């Protein structure tokens, strides 16, 4: 594959991964914290109608994001596999695998919560479990990246980081 196309693919995959994660986590937070407070003054039938419509819309978001997260994650994992498998960065491998494993479980729960026509019993409890798993998935990804960056900085052949030139756009220049 041409270098330019490969770079476009990798940037697009990372962007999709971040956007879809934001939508799933944000939607889960919305259902857990906003919807119950917003509908508490309504009659039970009205509560169920509002909750059902919101859940119906969120179902589409979850299913599309789940597919895109799996695809973008596969592209990124394929790109980074040699790095994780190398001796220098091997300590990050368990966290990368935890990110994948916990993420798949969290997405599976989110899909199950939205798959049926009616919400499952104890839907709020399952939503909270899903949210915790999603946040643990993000933590595993953050730990993976931190270990990789730390290993790179501590490597004997690593060049000392140079200060970026002064200016408004200097943030994040040493990021992966």
Largest sheet, strands/sense/barrel:
none
Strand content: under 5%
Radius of gyration: 20 Å
- Compute the number of strand runs: 0
Distance between the termini: 21 Å
How many domain modules?
1
Mean pLDDT: 87
Query: What class do helices, strands and sheet pairing give?
Result: mainly alpha
Query: What is the H/E order?
Result: HHHH
- The percent of residues in helical segments reads over 70%
Number of helices: 4
Q: How would you explain this protein's 3D organization?
A:
The chain is mostly helical and 176 residues long. It has one domain. It contains 4 helices and no strands. α1 (3-39) runs antiparallel to α2, α1 (3-39) runs antiparallel to α4 and α2 (44-85) runs antiparallel to α3 (93-115).
Task: Give a brief outline of the structure.
By secondary structure, this protein is an all-alpha fold. It has helices spanning 3-39, 44-85, 93-115, 123-154. It contains 4 helices and no strands.
Tags for this entry?
176 residues; mainly alpha; elongated; disordered C terminus
Helices and strands in order, then pairings?
Elements: H1 3-39, H2 44-85, H3 93-115, H4 123-154
Helix pairs in contact: 1-2, 1-4, 2-3, 3-4
């Amino acid at each position: 594959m041409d270098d330019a196309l490969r770079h476009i693919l990798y940037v697009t995959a990372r962007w999709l991964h971040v956007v879809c994660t934001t939508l799933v986590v944000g939607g889960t937070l919305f259902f857990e914290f906003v919807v119950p407070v917003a509908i508490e003054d309504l009659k039970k039938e009205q509560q169920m109608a509002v909750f059902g419509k919101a859940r119906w819309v969120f179902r589409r978001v979850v299913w599309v994001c789940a597919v895109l997260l799996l695809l973008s994650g596969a592209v990124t994992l394929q790109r980074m596999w040699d790095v994780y498998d190398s001796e220098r960065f091997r300590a990050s491998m368990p966290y990368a695998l935890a990110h994948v494993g916990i993420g798949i479980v969290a997405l599976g729960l989110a899909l199950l919560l939205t798959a049926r026509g009616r919400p499952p019993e104890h839907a709020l409890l399952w939503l909270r479990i899903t949210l915790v798993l999603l946040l643990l998935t993000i933590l595993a990804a953050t730990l993976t990246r931190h270990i990789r960056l730390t290993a790179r900085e501590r490597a004997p052949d690593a060049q000392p980081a140079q200060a970026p030139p002064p200016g408004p756009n200097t943030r994040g220049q040493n990021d992966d």
